[in-house]
Amino acid sequence: MNDTNHSWLASIKQELESNILGFWMKHTIDETNGGFFGLISCDLTVYPEAGKSLVLNTRILWTFASAYRMTGKDEYLKIAERAYRYINNHFADHEFGGLYWMVDALGRAAETKKQVYGQAFAIYAFSEYYRATGNEAALQQAIELFRTLERYSYDQQYKGYFEALTREWQETSDNSLSEKDLNEKKSMNTHLHVMEGYTNLYRVWKSDELHAKLKELIEITIQHIINANNAHFILFFDEQWNGKSEHISYGHDIEGSWLLVEAAEVLGDEALLAEAKAIAIRMAEATLNEGLDEDGGLFNEAGPEGLLDSDKDWWPQAEAVVGFYNAYQMTGDEKYEAAAKKSWQFIEQFIVDKEHGEWYWSVTRNGSPSDNIEKVSPWKCPYHNGRACFEMIERLTGASPTH
């Protein structure tokens, strides 16, 4: 490793342990009601009455299980155990299976619909907790959730997975993941994270049924979800895979490029891996050419008429580091390595909150923090930035993840 990469690695490790993991351990523990606070503002104001989301809690579990698996530090294990207990005690639906989307501040079910995206993150988190600890119950929970999704969410006619179902796993007209998402039957985002969850589960549970489903998901992503003409994700669909949006999400494109390759690597299908790598390189190239600002920051969204959102949210910056470096590893083209390093420099200069810790939600195009106050929230979690650090530590040191 050259001197430049040595200093890069050192700054990533410092950011991970001191500013990201350290922040979550210090500021987010809810000693009164259990688990973690559902909302903390960027000036560290805690909102103890805020609800708690499945996304936040499963991502905390995944992050700290992964941190423990990589470092062996007991302080990370304690946070993972806390998250695991809280999810089981408050989010698990013991009557109908699966997990609730939201609980209130006291841990009582608040939004009981079964959002498939949330179930996917539970699979991702439970399988990571098993990887880190060998907890057999967590592995069985991940397997049971996989089978539940296949039973209720899988589209037998057109393949893929429906967005959401009622608490009882019946059809619902309330599909959208958040206020800014379209109310369509299928989405890129849910399929991306089901694939991610299934990939992590397949690392530890090499079953034929999961192999078949993960392979199909990779194929669906290549055939239907990536636009073959421009190498961008199509974001929303009806049941028959007719596209319902022309928006481009640069963060999802660059994130998906490396997650697709990871899924194919873990699956072990050489022909499919070659196909995944080819399209992933095109996705990274398109993001580099269209989505990257001169300062190394990644824009949020564009449409047919051009840039729609010139803000730079925290999570696309994290994914850009990994996605561009992954493209560099596949091609040897130094422009991707340079882009990854520039993305990290942008993070250090503009996205890291040097006063209160962790990362801002976003900055405007001129680099000043945007007006979003959320430091911890249903969507603001340690997963994108924590995972980017884990990935880069593994990639820069040549430590291969356990496939």
What features would you describe in this structure?
55% of the residues lie in helices and 8% in strands. It has 403 residues and is mainly alpha-helical. It has one domain (3-397): Glycosyltransferase. Strands 2-3-4 form a 3-stranded antiparallel beta sheet. A 3-stranded antiparallel beta sheet has the order 9-10-11. The protein is globular.
Helices and strands in order:
Elements: H1 3-27, E1 40-41, E2 52-53, H2 54-71, H3 74-91, E3 102-103, E4 109-111, E5 114-115, H4 116-133, H5 136-152, E6 164-165, E7 186-187, H6 188-204, H7 208-225, E8 236-237, E9 248-249, H8 250-267, H9 270-290, E10 301-303, E11 306-309, E12 312-313, H10 314-331, H11 334-351, E13 362-363, E14 374-376, H12 383-397
Helix pairs in contact: 1-12, 2-3, 2-4, 2-12, 4-5, 4-6, 6-7, 6-8, 7-8, 7-9, 8-9, 8-10, 9-10, 10-11, 10-12
